[in-house]
Amino acid sequence: MAIKITGTGSALPEKIVTNFDMAEIVETSDEWIRERTGIAERRISTGDTVSSLAAKACEKALAMAGRDAADVDLILVATCSPELLLPCCACQVQSAIGAHKAVAFDLNAACSGFLFALNTAYAYMQTGLYKNALIVGSEVLSKLVDWTDRSTCVLFGDGAGAVFMEFSQEDEICENGRKAGIECMVMGADGTKGMVLACGERGLENPYAKEQEAVHPYVHMDGQEVYKFATRQVPACIKDALDKANLTVEDVDLFVLHQANVRIIESVAKRLKSDLSKFPMNLDKIGNMSSATIPVLLDELNRDKKLKKGDRLVLSGFGAGLTYGASILVWGA
Ligand code: ACO
């Protein structure tokens, strides 16, 4: 039995906004942003929505897998920036791509969202409930940031990535002897630290509502707390996943991490005592797209033929919640 990714896809808005462009909007500089984050430019929506980007990414993933939308069993969209509260983005995607028989719903675990969605779909598929799933991370964060707040607006970008995952009865043994498919997953959350990275929604406005504290309507973040959390928790959870699978850091070919910040990724590599060359990055060109970063990077690596059959990948996400997780898989597509 194997549960493996058989297609990947991504969609980015066309508009490129460089650090120099950002310096015309807020008091910042290319040097400051690059040094602290590794980001040089990001894609910003001029009209694309979370659902339109998600649908495009899904169509590409299905095309790569050679599957028809009508055969999709499950669509899971991870997003924290949907254009509508109702209906959910996954139902919009279902309609847009014509996946009539698919069960569709959203999941919000912020930047860990794609990973949590992947693990959720994996758990469903292990029970035999669904034979395949489209798993998507899609965000238009440019509408959640305050474009006058230089400490946050420079960090984020918009985009979507998707994978198609399929169950097969037979094992697929790769040339290096590894069995293709997902091997292990771990997930965690620490709600007590939730407010270090938060964004408000509508407050209670009914006629009976008591006076409440104003809800901050834009992303606000204690960057240093997030940095401490990520650099401590991500290596710990990757080690936890490796222990669970009886593996070591040396058994891993690539670490596909949430692309928040180059310094976080460098620190994780150092703490794991692993070579930084095993940590692919693309955030210089597209910034932090929350739940979309892992599937977009996966798609880029896949289309650039940088993933070989039998490669062992660790995917790891971390973000608001605070949430974190890791999945280990052997590439078999
Ligand atoms: N350009 C110029 N100066 C800036 C900018 C900017 N874009 N943003 C903030 N500053 C200034 C601040 O106003 C402050 O000035 P002051 O000393 O005069 O008050 C100074 O830079 C230092 O501000 P800090 O917030 O302390 O900056 P820090 O060194 O912590 O860097 C950063 C901020 C890059 C966000 C850092 O905290 C970090 O790497 N955090 C990790 C979290 C992260 O990357 N989050 C991404 C999203 S969350 C996620 O995906 C999980």
What's the rounded overall pLDDT mean?
96
Return the domain count: 2
> Beta-strand level of the residues, as a percent range?
15-25%
* Secondary-structure element order, N to C: EEHHEHEHEHEHEEEEHEHHHEE
Q: Share of helix among residues?
A: 25-40%
Kindly describe this structure.
- By secondary structure, the chain is an alpha/beta fold.
- The protein folds into two domains: 2-168, Peroxisomal Thiolase, Chain A, domain 1 (3-Layer(aba) Sandwich), CATH 3.40.47; 181-330, Peroxisomal Thiolase, Chain A, domain 1.
- Helix content is 31%, strand content 24%.
- A five-stranded mixed sheet has the order 1-7-6-4-5, sandwiched between helices. A four-stranded mixed sheet has the order 8-13-12-11, sandwiched between helices. It has a two-stranded antiparallel ribbon with strand order 2-3.
- The longest helix has 22 residues, at 223-244.
- The structure holds acetyl coenzyme *A.
- Acetyl coenzyme *A binds next to helix 2, helix 6, helix 7 and strand 12.
